[in-house]
Design goal:
Helix 11 packs parallel to helix 12 and helix 12 crosses helix 13 (about 360-370). The chain has helices at about 40-50, 80-85, 100-110, 125-130, 130-140, 155-160, 175-185, 210-215, 230-235, 250-265, 305-315, 335-350, 360-370, 385-390, 395-400; strands at about 15-20, 55-60, 90-95, 115, 145, 170, 195-200, 220-225, 240, 265-270, 275, 285-290, 295, 300-305, 320-325, 355-360, 380. A hairpin with an 8-residue loop joins strand 11 and strand 12. The strands form 4 sheets. Strands 3-4-2-1-5-6 form a 6-stranded parallel beta sheet, with helices on both faces. Strands 10-8-7-15-16-17 form a 6-stranded parallel beta sheet, with helices on both faces. A 3-stranded antiparallel beta sheet has the order 12-11-14. The radius of gyration is 23 Å and the shape is elongated. It has 15 helices and 17 strands. The chain folds into 2 domains: about 10-175, Rossmann fold (3-Layer(aba) Sandwich), CATH 3.40.50.1260; about 190-390, Phosphoglycerate kinase, N-terminal domain (Rossmann fold). It is α/β, with parallel strands linked by helices. The longest helix is centred in the middle third of the chain and has 16 residues, at about 250-265.
């Protein structure tokens, strides 16, 4: 754990009001049915710990991007039946986050009960990092608890400013504790070797620092998805119309990364072949091409059969595995095969004793699609927060608790 950080286990919540920041920004369908409740389920142990000690809980969260204005579309009210059912108790709701109305409702709250406040982002001050808003929120609880790993990389009021109004009465929840422990286990580089990192997704810019940070201890770094094409282009390959972030600084850094890998004799691996398409849609015409010679007007949208075999062979021999980001345009079923193979192979390898850490919406979605999400050592609830942590940065939400 990080030195100086308290967890909920350091406090007794009897007769105390826990102001608990959670990340209930969950995906829903048009009928407001939750399509993936991982983030809520992951927070339940912290909630149950506080309730079992006869504490009171005020839950605060954001949902969507209402841009500082109240709106029925982004109300958190839809969570009440779901939370009440999961916790087997009536969860109350308040249409505001600050003010006399909220304070009155909290005053009436009994021990062992929960009150969910309305969407924090209905107040523009939440995303602005506003001291006054933080102060008003701080009046609502005795102990501040952050169990919202998924947003702890953001310098928003409820994450980075609010804790300072609680002095020493602030801590992280059990979910945050788990996230930090598993990340530390990976970032220490002391995991059982070989250590393999699979990085995918469209943007290379968000992951350059990660590659720089893990070169020293990773044995294999597998690059797939849109991230691979800038490297291939730089090495003189023809990539047709495949996605490329154009940026001089990116090019210089990629060069540095390639040189560093060569110096340290580290394996930076790219797809050998790709499934190319003549347009960016699921029904596009397709064929298999070498990643180094994609014809003009064609674009790579998934890794090909040789690449799947090559990547999966490396994963099968690995003992510590981290994966973030799909290796193809996963949202198109016709270009999801590579990502799904990676998911299945990591799950199988984990069952044989490897330690695996997976984060990012698409990576987790592919595991669920293959029915193997329960076979991974740890599923991270944060996409952006996971990426920031992998750059070896202390997240604002963690810094504010120390």
């Amino acid at each position: 754990m990080i030195e100086g950080i308290k967890t909920v286990n350091n406090f007794d919540f009897k007769n105390q009001i826990a102001l608990m920041r959670v990340d209930f920004n969950v995906p829903i369908d048009k009928y407001y049915n939750i399509t993936d409740d991982t983030r809520i389920q992951s927070t339940l142990p912290t909630i149950q710990k506080i309730l079992s000690e006869k504490g009171k809980i005020i839950l605060i969260s954001h949902f969507g991007r209402p841009k500082g204005k109240p709106s029925k579309t982004y109300s958190l009210k839809f969570l009440i039946p779901f939370l009440s059912e999961k916790l087997k108790l009536t969860v109350d709701f308040c249409e505001n986050c600050i003010g006399k109305n909220v304070e009155q409702k909290i005053h009436q709250l009994k021990n062992g009960k929960i009150l969910l406040l309305e969407n924090l982002r209905f107040y523009k001050e939440e995303e602005e990092g506003n001291e006054n808003f933080a102060f008003e929120l701080s009046k609502l609880g005795d102990i501040y608890v952050n169990d919202a790993f998924g947003v702890s990389h953001r310098s928003h009021t409820s994450i980075s400013l609010l804790p300072k109004f609680f002095g020493k009465k602030k801590c992280i929840g059990l979910l945050m504790q788990k996230e930090i422990q598993f990340l530390n286990k990976f970032l220490s580089g002391k995991g059982k070797k070989p250590i393999t990192v699979i990085l995918g997704g469209a943007k290379i810019s968000s992951k350059i620092e990660i590659i720089e940070n893990i070169i020293d201890f990773a044995d294999h770094i597998l690059i797939g998805g849109g991230m691979s094409y800038p490297f291939i282009k730089m090495k003189g390959g023809k990539i047709g119309n495949s996605i490329v972030e154009k940026n001089q600084i990116i090019e210089e850094t990629l060069n540095k990364i390639l040189n560093k890998c060569q110096e340290k004799n580290k394996k930076l691996s790219f797809p050998k072949d790709v499934i190319i398409a003549d347009s960016f849609k699921n029904t596009a015409n397709t064929k298999i091409s070498s990643i180094h010679s994609i014809p003009d007007r064609w674009m790579g949208l998934d890794i090909g059969p040789s690449s799947i075999k090559y990547f999966c062979n490396i994963i099968e021999k690995s003992n510590t595995i981290l994966w973030n980001g799909p290796v193809g345009v996963f949202e198109f079923p016709n270009f999801s095969l590579g990502t799904r193979f990676i998911a299945k192979t990591i799950a199988k390898r984990t069952e044989k004793g490897a330690f695996s850490l997976v984060g990012g919406g698409d990576s987790i979605a592919s595991l669920k699609m293959e029915g193997c999400n329960n076979k991974i050592s740890y599923l991270s609830t944060g996409g952006g927060a996971l990426l920031e942590s992998l750059k070896n940065k202390i997240l604002p939400g963690i810094k504010a608790i120390i």
